[in-house]
Design a protein that fits this description.
Largest sheet: 5 strands, mixed
Shape: globular
CATH class: Alpha Beta
Number of strands: 5
Distance between the termini: 24 Å
Number of domains: 1
Helix content: 40-55%
CATH superfamily: Ribonuclease H-like superfamily/Ribonuclease H
Number of helices: 7
CATH topology: Nucleotidyltransferase, domain 5
């Protein structure tokens, strides 16, 4: 069964997902989806830290915890459905998540006192939901900072790195639009992780 890699670029409440595989030296883009991980009936779920800002600290912690748990469940359900659909021909072997700056977050009270940190924390909450969902399904996850994507691609693909985004876009044409920055970054991250894991396996077999 052919290995495939999930690539994610995550926003507040949803993630852009691209599934990439490679067969006979040619890239395949198997799926392109938007996965929502917000329960519309749950107050404050789309922007949990914004909502929690107006609550006492203890209630804020509970609200954020509930939101994180629901997002994890929704992400896991969506990914399990996708894995089942791919399972006849492809095995989801890995996942790549495009990260932001990677700055460590302070304590909750300091986050809630800063609007920029609230946005950072919300992004991290939803990225964590996708990451934890993958791990719960037995899929190893690699995070790549967006500003380092081109460098990582260069390290893995060397001279062919420059043409890789064009190859991936061509492989995705059968899916139709959109193919914007979300899909480009998610696909590139997935290609890097898939190729790097394949190289590592080959090296391990030779030792």
């Amino acid at each position: 069964m052919q290995p495939a890699c999930l690539g994610f670029r995550v926003h507040s409440g949803w993630g852009a997902l691209v599934v990439v595989a490679r067969q006979s030296g040619r890239w395949q883009v198997l799926q392109r989806r938007r996965i929502n991980v917000v329960d519309g009936k749950m107050a404050g779920h789309a922007q949990p830290y914004h909502f929690a800002r107006e609550q006492p600290l203890a209630e804020a912690k509970k609200h954020i915890g509930r939101c994180a748990a629901v997002s994890l469940r929704l992400a896991q359900e969506a990914l399990q459905e996708l894995i089942d659909q791919l399972s006849q021909e492809h095995r989801v072997a890995s996942a790549a998540i495009v990260l932001a700056s990677g700055r460590a977050l302070p304590e909750l009270n300091r986050i809630l006192a800063s609007h920029p940190l609230i946005h950072t924390a919300e992004g991290e909450l939803f990225r964590t939901a996708f990451s934890n969902a993958c791990e719960a399904l037995g899929i190893p996850v690699t995070g790549i900072r967006e500003r380092e994507l081109a460098q990582r691609a260069q390290a893995v693909f060397e001279k062919s790195a420059a043409s890789l985004p064009v190859e991936l876009a061509a492989a995705a044409k059968h899916l139709g639009p959109p193919w914007g920055q979300d899909q480009k970054a998610a696909a590139l991250a997935a290609a890097v992780v898939l190729a790097a894991s394949s190289t590592a396996k080959v090296a391990a077999m030779k030792t």
